[in-house]
């Protein structure tokens, strides 16, 4: 079995805890100690925040490693140095080196992938690493590092079966990436923020809260993105920022990244340049397909679906037809409520047993049509509207991107 196939075969393994990843990193010589780390967790927006923070630190002159998940088209997307995915030959060599240790410790897919990223960053001499938390925080493999800054973007209704059952439980798990004396930032609200605030106080973690300590004001739609003003309450400083990302909700994620970069030593000009060039594929990504507008969004929980709805209206991207496919373990009814009535719907699925049978979703979308093949579903949707939105799962978005590039579907769980 080739190294990457071996890694994918471990997708079914999941057992929360930091014992295995810590033991694995010890066997590899503790690569995570070779550079400072920022951890970015949260229910939604953590990918955007992590990518933008990495871009800001690069603009500030740092050599930066970025670890994100899941990937869309190619596993190598997850592990980047200076914005470039890990070369295939280095990926395969590092996997071969890591494999015997991971097998002895029965490490999971995500634990092995995280160790791989941390080892690659050490070998490449990065000066800073930005790590996107995979699930929760307290017991996530990325939390085996000791961050110099932590971000919890928000707290929403996702993975309740693992992190819950309540929103307070989810918030408590996400606060597990806080450290005593180490700055943390959040855009959380309501009871989620209440728990984060209490956990920060108990840990003596200085917490910056969006809407209190800093603000994202005057959010404006631009032809190819958005603009907003970042204002710091404590100093009175204000900076107008522009970005290529779509959706007013992204102003929160960008503000978190911008202040994070500033706290880590980036100057305002580096912050401005990093925000301006930041990208996050699969999050309201705009493409032209056969001369028609295609938008791809990985909204996969109720909060993400509501943000998608608001973004489409904010940027004037309706009417549109929708190609939707959900994972089995999501709140289908709440997501349907957020997306219902925006346009005609075609239900489909991605190539995994984790994907929900689209026929089971029909009661939630009266009048929808089921087309099991995603590309055929696209054709059906374009026969109804000149603009199509693909949403419901990052795995579905990834499969559509692969198929558009002529690549076969990839069986995905993580």
From TrEMBL:
UniProt xrefs under SUPFAM superfamilies = MurD-like peptide ligases, catalytic domain, MurD-like peptide ligases, peptide-binding domain
Q: Report a single Gene Ontology molecular function.
A: metal ion binding
Swiss-Prot/TrEMBL catalytic activity:
(6S)-5,6,7,8-tetrahydrofolyl-(gamma-L-Glu)(n) + L-glutamate + ATP = (6S)-5,6,7,8-tetrahydrofolyl-(gamma-L-Glu)(n+1) + ADP + phosphate + H(+)
Q: Which residues form the Mur ligase central domain?
A: 40-259
Any Pfam family the entry gives: Mur_ligase_C
Q: What is its EC number?
A: 6.3.2.17
Domain Mur ligase C-terminal stretches: 282-393
Gene Ontology cellular component?
A: cytoplasm
For activity, the cofactor(s) needed are: Mg(2+)
Keyword Ligase set for record: yes
Q: What class of enzyme is it?
A: ligase
Q: Kindly state which keywords UniProt assigns to this record, in alphabetical order.
A: ATP-binding, Ligase, Magnesium, Metal-binding, Nucleotide-binding
InterPro entries (alphabetical): Folylpolyglutamate_synth (IPR001645), Mur-like_cat_sf (IPR036565), Mur_ligase_C (IPR004101), Mur_ligase_C_dom_sf (IPR036615), Mur_ligase_cen (IPR013221)
Family the entry assigns: Belongs to the folylpolyglutamate synthase family.
Protein's UniProt name: tetrahydrofolate synthase
Task: Name the lineage.
Answer: Bacteria, Thermotogati, Deinococcota, Deinococci, Thermales
